[in-house]
Every structure is written in C-alpha cells, then in structure tokens.
Amino acid sequence: MAKTENMGVNTICTHVGEVADEQFKGAISPLYMSSSYAYENVDIKRYPRYFNTPNQEALGKKIAALEHTEAGMIFGSGMAAVSHCLLAFLQKGDHVVLQKTLYGGTYNFVVEEFGKFGIEYTFTNGFAEEDFRNALQDNSKVIYVETPSNPLMLITDLEMITRLAKEHDLVSMIDNTFASPINQNPADFGIDIVIHSATKYMGGHSDICAGAVAASDEHIEQIWNLSKNIGGSLSDYTVWLLERSLKTLALRVKAQNRNAKKMAKWLHKHPLVKKVYYPGLKDHPDYTLAKKQMKGYTGMLSFELIPTVNAETFMQSLQLIKQSMSLAGVESTILSPAKTSHTLLSAEERTHQGISDGLLRFSVGIEEKKDLIADFEHAFEVAAKKEIA
Ligand SMILES: *Cc1c(COP(=O)(O)O)cnc(C)c1O
Predict the structure, then answer these.
(1) Transmembrane ranges (predicted)?
(2) In what order do the strands lie in the sheet with 193-197?
(3) Looking at the structure, do residues 270 and 357 belong to the same domain, yes or no?
(4) Which residues form the domain of 333?
C-alpha cells in the first residue's frame, strides 16, 4: 500500500489498516472474534487484552494514519483511553498540569482517584500561556488539554503547549474528541499523545462506546505496558463496527462542519438568541487561533437564548432535534449544560464560567439545514408565545 502520508483523508478512512481476506477475497476486513491464538512459531502472541488481535491492529493503524502518528490503540471507552494515558506517565510524587474546564469524567477521574496514587494536580485558571505557567511545579511531568472546550468552544494554543512541554520536559496530552482527526491533528503541532472518545465523532452513529489513542511507537509502548495489566480492551465486534464507521468519518464530519457553520450564522442573526459560541464565527474570541490550528470548526456549537425565552420550553418543543447527553452522531442533538454536565456546580460558579440557564449545546448532524431551521423556528415560536401568555 502507498505511504499513508501521501493519501487523501477519505482514502485513509476507507482503506488504511484493512485486514486482507485471503481466503474469500471479500471487500471488507473479516471479523476475527477469536480470543485464543496459536503461540508456537509466532512472533506475536495475540490476545484481546494485549490489544493485538487482527481487528485491533487494523484499527490502530487507521487511527495512527488519521492523526499522523506512528501508532494507535483502541480502548473500551474514551475514559479508558484518558485514564490509561494519564496513569502510564504519572507516578507517586509526580504532578500534572490540567487545563481548566475538562470533560466531566476526566475531571472526576483526577479529583476522585489521583489522591490514592499520590499524584498531585493543578487545574489552570484559564487558557492563556501565563495560566499554564502559573500551574507548573518542579515535579510536573504531564500537561493535559482539551480543545475546543465544552461547551463554550474555547481554544487552547497547541504550539504554546508544545513549547511549554519541551521547556519543562513534560509529556503533552490532548483530548481531541470535539475536533475529531478530520478537523485537528495535534501531533502536527508537536503534541505527544492524542486521545479520543471514539464514542463521539469516530463512531458517529450513537451506537458505539470506545476510546482511541494516537502517539509515537515509544509512547504507545509505555501506555501498552500499563494497559495489558489493567485490561480495558474493546471487544472485537465493536472494533470491527468502529472500522466501518471510520470509513465515512471525513464525509460525515465535513458535512457536520458545513451544517454547523450555517446554523451558527443563522442563530447569530436570530432576535431571540443572545450569543452564539462557534470558533468558525469571526466574533468568537478564539477565531484566529482556531483558524491557525484547525482544518474545520466542528459540528459543535453553543448558543444562549435571550432571558425571556425559556430554555426548557424551547427544547421540549423541538421535534426533529433530540435532547441527548452525548454528541457527534449523524443526528442533531441538543442539551442544557446547566441541567446536565454542569449541574453539580453552584449557580454562582456556573455564571462565572459563562454557563447560564439559557445556554444550549447543539451537536449538529447531517440533516438538511432547512429542516433544522424549521424545527428551531417552531420551538422559538412556542417558547416565545408561552412567555407572553
Ligand atoms: C464523551 C467524552 C469523553 C469520554 O468518553 P467515553 O467514551 O464516554 O468514556 C472524554 N472526553 C470528551 C471530550 C468526551 O466528550
């Protein structure tokens, strides 16, 4: 096969890593469900928990090609990927610098578990270089970011993170879930370890729970050394299903990017919308940075209703767009961060973070724009009427 660096992204999605069906010459990778492989006269001892079954290996190669790294690994969930990466590079007495506003599960993992391992941590006060510098300690070993952030789509400067990591000899890690490998390749900016919840854009159909990591051979080996002991591998059936999903990753994400940009512009002009948070809009505070390090602005956006429009009524009046906790499926979904991901914060803290009751996070799918607009128009009408009545 040709070198993956020279391949177009859709070709990578469709072909890289595929397992040849030598026996029947079928068009797709055969699914190998075996949990037991011969060990005599073989170099590799294959076993699902060693992350090296034929389907696991195939998918690892595709993810590495998509993220421009040497190697890739698939886990049982996004959190399995996050937790294995952090624990592989941190030990007792070490310190990690974490960006403010991380995915809730990552935040909980750090706050609830790190004490047991004697690992110290500091969350930054903001996204600027100074905020990261202020959080550094002599025993810092890892720097961890997530960009774009949830739900306000704030952007962290990846070149700045790489610079700090090099200066202080840190391993840099990013949760690249919101961007997907189509919109952002952090390894191109020098980030060491790229993590995905494959439950989101990679799976893309709201029917797979999985995680992925892309990094150098050396870093993957260090993660693997821990992973084989903890054992968070993904079943081969789901691995195979994820390979199928990835064939359309670029097509889906590019369609979602286009839709999100159109919807962001439409919402921006709407009289009942106070503010739109989308890094592809020129008035987003991080537009220039997003433009520099992203290839597309994702299918994720948030918008704030004006105070006289009730968010609950608005959401319940939607007929096409579903209320949903998760994101990034081909179907459009919406949620209230104040009522879900950020409900444990005090009202005051939420206000401080810019998460008002009227803020809604919109995961834009692949439906036609006119149908999404019609659904919103109807909901605006009902919610506005109810306020007047
Ligand atoms: C969903 C999500 C995760 C966790 O992934 P799971 O597959 O649910 O374990 C991590 N990071 C981000 C940004 C997510 O959206």
Answers:
(1) none
(2) 71-75, 211-215, 193-197, 171-175, 140-146, 95-98, 120-123
(3) yes
(4) 254-388
